[in-house]
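Hey forum,

I'm writing up a methods section and want to include a predicted complex as supplementary material. The small molecule is magnesium ion. I've pasted the protein sequence and the SMILES. Can someone with a working setup run it? I'll credit the forum in the acknowledgements.
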Amino acid sequence: MYREFARKMIITTLLISFVPLSLLGYALYYNFAKAYHERIEQQINSRLRDCAQTLDIFLEERLVILSAIANMSTLEYYKNISHLQSLFQSINQKTGGDLIDLGVINSSGDHLAYIGPYNLKGLNYSQEAWFDQVMVKGVYISDVYMGYRKIPHFIIAVRASKNGTDWILRATIDLDILTRIISTAQMGKTGDAFIINSAGVYQSPSRFDKNKILTDSEIDSSMFGANITVVKRGDGPDKNLVYNGLWIRNGQWLLIVSQNTDEYLLSFSDMANEQLTLFFLAVLGIVITTVIATSISVNTLQSRDKEVAELNAHLIQTDKLAALGKMAAGVAHEINNPLGIISTKAGWMRDLLEEEEFKDSPNLEELISCIDKIEEHVQRAGKITHNMLGFARSMEPVMERIDINALLTKTTEFLNHHAQINNINIRLDYAQSLPEITSDRSQLQQVFLNILNNAIDAIEKEGDVIITTKLEHDTRKAKDKVVVEIKDTGIGIPDHIKKRIFDPFFTTKEKGKGTGLGLSISYRIIEKLGGTISVKSEKNRGSLFSIILPVTLSENDN
Ligand SMILES: Nc1ncnc2c1ncn2[C@@H]1O[C@H](COP(=O)(O)OP(=O)(O)O)[C@@H](O)[C@H]1O
Ligand SMILES: [Mg+2]
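Reply by user p_vandermeer:
Happy to help. Structure tokens for the complex are below, copy them as they are.
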């Protein structure tokens, strides 16, 4: 019952503390994770935006420089190869060597002058799409291509107009420079950045595969809007690979920054694990505290209940004895009168038998033995009523100083003879220097006699009775107590009987042998004297009666 109660209490307490704790933990974790993810995305986005801006500025700058220079002079001037050469040098000086070559093309598409590693002079571009675009729009940036050189590059071209003649200044830009700018957006272990054109073809190498340039990226560029768009790829180990894209050059190229967010989440999961560990430590703490607190309170409850139960049993016993005592007194009294008359009449009859007329009667012997029997049984009945009266009477104890050891020894002397013929050995195991106690000598003696008689009855033939005395200190009441233990090696008391042995008239002995009053009287006496009496017994092994008596009787003992 107590276990069940403790279990319920522990479960309830744990539920009450866990539910809010778990909810709180989950909410904290959820919000934290969300904020963490948002931060990662923001970080990737701002990297993308920065890189796109740099690229835009870079390209715009090249166009502006080219355009400014072209418009400074005339076609006639730049046609001269030495002029073009010095222009090429000064641009490369200013920009750090971006240009691979530089060419001058007239409005009919003829390549009039060329500085660079390939001899492109004399080619005609009038049929090429880019030529029309420059002529119409004024500026042009090509996609990346291999061209004659078999290395990826792209061109930029601007149209200049002077004195009514349009002509074109065209330069090839080294892709390495673009690649270098893009590489600033490649972060961590998994971060990649590259450009694809609107058809999805790589315009720059991937960080992880240089050969991807000019191959199909399989990225559907139409998924990316005007602003940054995040597209998650959801397959296999790349589940958390995030693609962020931003169009540059007014939609000509798409700059993509990709990153596997697992890379960041790894450190996040480290943190999360720490939190989880803390959480479990907290949980463990709660569990331990709950279990300890519960077991303490349940134990307290249990011992309280036990005390109450003992007190109740004691009160019931006392009540029973008191009620029975009154009845016994009444019965004893009623029986004593007729017993008195029977006894007197029997005596009268015995006197009569002395007379002459009966002296010669042949039945004289028979009659005398009948009268003997009557007197003997009246005496026995008288003893019982005497006992009953003793039990009933609330005899005021006569207090004196008693040496318990000496009293016990004296009591055993009454029994020694009977014990010896039955081969019963009474052993004394006294505590030395036992203090004298204040109690009622004859009442205590009656108790010891009752218990010793029971012990001898229980042994019948052959066995030991061991009488032990000791001093005990009751720390709770700060008082000394004397303990008398009477142990026998008799038949023992079965459990179902143990509860009843202190009841008046309860006996297991055959008729005429037991009255069932010994222990109930002893119980009453010991109680009156401020002590307790208890029994421990095991069937067939023997019994142990303990009598605990206060050294001095104080008011609340009674
Ligand atoms: N030492 C003992 N060993 C076994 N049984 C005992 C012992 N003491 C008492 N009893 C049991 O308790 C019963 C009640 O004892 P008691 O009140 O002295 O009455 P009685 O001795 O007249 O039977 C006994 O009949 C016996 O069954
Ligand atoms: Mg008895």
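Some notes you might quote in the supplement: Residues 450, 454-455, 458, 488, 490-493, 501, 506-509, 514-520, 543 surround adenosine-5'-diphosphate (ligand 1) (CB under 6 Å). The chain is about 50% helix and 20% strand.
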